[in-house]
Design goal:
alpha/beta; seven-stranded mixed β-sheet; 11 helices; 15 strands; globular; binds 5-S-methyl-1-O-phosphono-5-thio-D-ribulose
Length: 352
């Protein structure tokens, strides 16, 4: 029987040289750990959103490169590097918007480039992938600690999608700030938007908060602005898939919450690690993932729309930075003007 308390969302199985992960498509009905032993299987799991959420994708990218390395039978270092590099490209293409995926892949490939032999490269790949995973936990804890300071002693927080333990190795980013606030003794109630069409809010955020005994109430995405108008929301906190020099990319629907929050004078916060920052790009440079029409036209066996209808299914949207009151990172809380804050965190060379 799987011990739910002790299991990370994604982990490296050193004994069997493969990746272990919680299949998020099965939640909340089933909590099941899967094993992934090939890069093709990992690519499939990422495309199907069995593994999802920006930091978890970063870890998956890193472990995917390690997997390609340990499974390779090449003995020539040049050919070995070519094969692992191609595996990295395959994984990179699975989800184009969440920058952490490419970040995790590049980080391990970069370290492997220092190796003088295939055996050394394999060792480096596995070690670095494990470091990426371990760092994620520390990052979320630190970020949570900074973020909870933004929470009043008693408050109701709206969140969108799932930026929780399931989207990371554990703890979470947006939900990490909530967990840290609860841990600090604050009285926090959470309003979770269901997050159509794949319901990461109702399926995942509600599941993990309930499991931790945190007060959570589910709403349809479309009622968020009305609750703000009624004074029922004190702040909004969401995660991010990519932060460019001018915008925050996150799950589709985030932008409308930011617009509504600004209109109603509700603070809108983003919680994300520095690995989500992509300051050398602007919003217009980024490919927003479009997903299959079936996510909107059916639910299981039930048809939700007439056959032949046109469908536009963006997985993410971009919120301009002027609607973001603060960005919580593992090194502190960034405030506008962001060009200034980005410079202060030492990433100014890349800012566009
Ligand atoms: O399509 P998903 O479920 O991978 O989208 C996830 C999100 O949009 C999260 O909010 C984001 O990755 C931040 S996770 C800490």
């Amino acid at each position: 029987m799987l011990d739910e308390e002790d299991t990370y969302t994604i982990a490296w199985d050193a004994e069997n040289e493969c990746i272990l992960y919680i299949d998020q498509t099965l939640l909340p009905g089933r909590y099941e750990q899967m094993r992934c032993a090939t890069v093709d299987d990992l690519a499939r799991a990422i495309r199907r959103l069995e593994i999802r959420g920006a930091p978890a994708l970063g870890i998956a990218g890193a472990m995917g490169v390690a997997l390609a390395a340990v499974r390779s039978t090449e003995t020539d270092l040049g050919r070995f590097s070519g094969e692992v590099g191609r595996a990295g490209e395959l994984l990179r293409g699975t989800r184009p918007t969440a920058v952490n995926l490419a970040w995790g892949i590049d980080r391990v490939l970069g370290k492997m480039a220092l190796a003088a032999s295939v055996a050394e490269a394999k060792k480096i790949a596995v070690a670095e992938a494990q470091i990426v995973a371990e760092e994620d936990e520390l990052t979320c804890r630190r970020l949570g600690g900074f973020g909870e300071e933004l929470f009043p002693e008693r408050c109701t927080v709206l969140t969108h999608c799932n930026a929780g333990a399931l989207a990371c190795r554990c703890w979470g980013t947006a939900l990490g700030t909530i967990r840290s606030a609860v841990e600090a003794g604050k009285d926090v109630r959470v309003i979770a938007c269901e997050t159509r069409p794949l319901n990461q809010g109702s399926r995942l955020t509600c599941w993990e908060l309930l499991r931790d005994g945190i007060d959570v109430t589910l709403i349809p995405d479309s009622s968020a602005a009305y609750l703000m108008r009624k004074g029922m929301i004190d702040l909004v906190v969401v995660g991010a898939d990519r932060i460019t020099g001018d915008a925050v990319f996150n799950k589709i629907g985030t932008y409308m919450h930011a617009v509504a929050a600004r209109h109603h004078g509700v603070p809108f916060y983003v919680a994300a690690p520095l690995s989500t920052f992509d300051l050398s790009h602007r919003e217009a440079d980024i490919t927003v993932e479009e997903r299959d029409r079936s996510e909107l036209t059916s639910c299981g066996d039930r048809r939700l729309a007439p056959e032949g209808v046109g469908v536009l299914n963006y997985a993410f949207d971009a919120t301009p930075l002027d609607l973001v009151d603060a960005i919580v990172t593992e090194i502190g809380v960034l405030r506008p003007p962001y060009t200034e804050s980005f410079r202060l965190v030492g990433r100014d060379r890349e800012v566009r």
